[in-house]
Amino acid sequence: MAKIESGTREEVKKIVYEFFAEECEVSAEVLNEGTNVIKDLEGDSLMFLELLEIFKKKYGLDVELKTVGKYVVKHPAETIGAIINMTMLIIEHENRIADIG
Amino acid sequence: MIPDGPPSVEKKKTASIFPAFGCKYLGNERSILEDMSPDLKELLGRAGDAVGLSGDLLAGSPYGDFSDELISQYAVYLYGCAVSHILKRSGVHSDYTAGYSMGLYAALYHAECITFEQGLECIRVAYGLIRNTASKHDFGMGLISGLPLADVEELVSRSDDLEIINANNRHSFLVSGYDENVRHVLAAARVNGALNIQHLAFRSPYHSRFMNEAAARFREYCSGIRIYDPIYRLVSSVDRRVVTTGDEVLADLADNINHAINWHETMSCMIAAGVDAFIECGPGKSLYKMAKFIEGDFDVYYLHTLSSLLSSGRSCSHAPAFKR
């Protein structure tokens, strides 16, 4: 389980904003936590997969994609804010995210 | 604009890869290509004469959301061929080439196996044969992302008439078969943790055994046209062999109709052969995106980044074409 430190959320936020700005070819300044990745940025699920792999590598996370997938079915995350929140949960709980109701 | 002067010599290998219809357009493909060269306009005129494709049809769907599947296929072929012209004009040598699904036709044009008009005619004939076969049943296709291959295989094995017809990369798989079963397997995949499922708009079970009859007839049709040996190493997405003769091209054309393809392995095969720069020749950047989950040290350039590639000379080489 990765240790959540005081700056972790800010670090995650920075990565998420930079990632979507680059992938969707928009300025990071136009993004906010309410930006819907699918509807506003025409993003797709592969982007989320890529982001997940970035965080798996960065924090050495032990989490299976399908475990995250099962969580996403119950807790869809389409906005940048929701994705940041979910990423924090994944970092904190890894595969145990499946146990979260 | 196309850079002046000879390109610098690079020993690294380059592959030109061609997407299929159904890819999401960036929206400004036409203006990018028309700014680079007169090729798109010239080819569009020829496509108009051959199959009635018009500039108005293209302009009406800048994002590739054509209501007619056949027009959609013509359009992606047209864009692919236009990029092929630009690469050749710019002195970019393709060490390898490959087509994703019906992207094969543009790859064959690029490899100078067929003429531009023959490619259009192949698309028209194949589409007619496929629709004729597919219209007998209610078929469908679906995309499953985020499950390991073994899990997808297990889900698909629950129905006799479902097939995995392509592995895009290590996370994304296409399934095909009777539509009812496609919908069932997509729902099951979601429950099992697929991060994304998508029921595709296509009503034909491309690349599946349901297309056996269409493939046999298409082979018969293709055997009547003159197919030249490829000038580049053409990698079959059906079995990953390097196709070097017109006869092998003929077999690959037919097999492409009723056999599963594997894009992940096709790319891996070229990467293993030393390719470290892929050029996506067509609209959108679907192959660029798929390649993010394919292992290896390589770059994929697409239409938006093509100018920077050409001006850098990064991928240009004067390596001799494959000798027959």
- Report the radius of gyration of chain A as a whole number of Å: 13 Å
Radius of gyration of CA atoms of chain B, rounded to a whole number: 19 Å
Structural domain count of chain B: 2
Tell how many strands the DSSP assignment of chain B holds.
10
The run of helices and strands of chain B is EHHHHEHHEHEEHEHEEHHEHEH
Counting helices, strands and paired strands, the structural category of chain B is: alpha/beta
CATH topology of the largest domain in chain B: Malonyl-Coenzyme A Acyl Carrier Protein, domain 2
Low-confidence stretches of chain B: 318-324
For the largest sheet of chain B, list the strands in their spatial order: 8-7-2-1-9-10
- In quaternary terms, these chains amount to heterodimer
CATH architecture of the largest domain in chain B: 3-Layer(aba) Sandwich
What is the CATH top level name of the largest domain in chain B?
A: Alpha Beta
Count of distinct strands of chain A: 0
SS-based class of chain A:
mainly alpha
Strand content of chain A: under 5%
CATH level-4 homologous superfamily of the largest domain in chain B: Malonyl-Coenzyme A Acyl Carrier Protein, domain 2
String of helices and strands of chain A? HHHH
Which term fits the overall shape of chain A?
A: globular
Description:
The complex is a heterodimer of chains A (101) and B (324). With 101 residues, chain A is mostly helical. Chain A is built from 4 helices and no strands. Chain A is globular, with a radius of gyration of 13 Å. In chain A, 27% of the residues are buried. The model of chain A has no long low-confidence stretch (mean pLDDT 88). In chain B, strand 7 and strand 8 (242-243) form a beta hairpin. The model of chain B is unreliable at 318-324 (pLDDT under 50). Chain B has 2 domains: 14-134 and 209-311, 3-Layer(aba) Sandwich (Malonyl-Coenzyme A Acyl Carrier Protein, domain 2); 139-199, Alpha-Beta Plaits. In chain B, helix 6 (116-134) runs antiparallel to helix 9 (212-222). Chain B is of the alpha/beta class and 324 residues long. The longest helix of chain B is centred in the first third of the chain and has 21 residues, at 69-89. At the A-B interface, helix 2 and helix 3 of A face loops of B.
